[in-house]
Amino acid sequence: MDTEISSKVFQNPLILERILSSVLDENNTISNQYLRLVSKSFDHGYLSFLKKRNREIRIESMRASVFVNCEKVEIRKLVSYFKFLNSVVKVNVRKVEVFGTGELHSAFRQPVHDLILKGFIEGNYNSIEKLVGLTDLCDGCTDCIRMSVTCLDYGPI
Ligand SMILES: [Zn+2]
User: Fold this and answer.
1) Is 51 exposed, middle or buried (0-12, 13-18, 19+ CB in 10 A)?
2) Cα of 18 to ligand 1 centre, how many Å?
3) pTM, whole model, 2 decimals?
4) Which of 18, 61, 109, 114 has the fewest CB atoms within 10 Å around its CB?
5) Helix (H) or strand (E) holding 7
6) SS3 category, 67
7) How far is the CA of 131 from the centre of ligand 1 (A)?
8) In this predicted model, what pLDDT tens digit does every residue of 29-40 receive, in sequence order?
9) Cα gap 132→130, rounded to integer Å
């Protein structure tokens, strides 16, 4: 294919969004990060796609794993994933829901709570309207209670 035509196709944001949404299903955005290297428009499209997808965050935990909007993230990589969402994707999160906390291994409860609160929510403090389920991991620490002042919807699941 003529490279000039193909580059024009990939610079069209609508076409690019369709391509990316067909490639990036709910649980493989991390493994497909190489798409950012294809071109500047792919990089921009990829980050825009993630920004849109992560306006509402559903965090589910199962024994020793955490799923962020269905994306499996190892607990030891959670801090860098949240940093990526905050600093690179520049998410503007409105809602955070934490599910399945009873399934999480007891040794991970406090670290996961702290990672969600300090590593993720603090960077989105002003945009978060809903925060539910996080207090199930700490039984209502002072930092969580502070969030109840600014959230419209706050509390346990
Ligand atoms: Zn707490």
Assistant:
1) middle
2) 39
3) 0.85
4) 18
5) helix 3-11
6) strand
7) 11
8) 888 888 899 888
9) 6
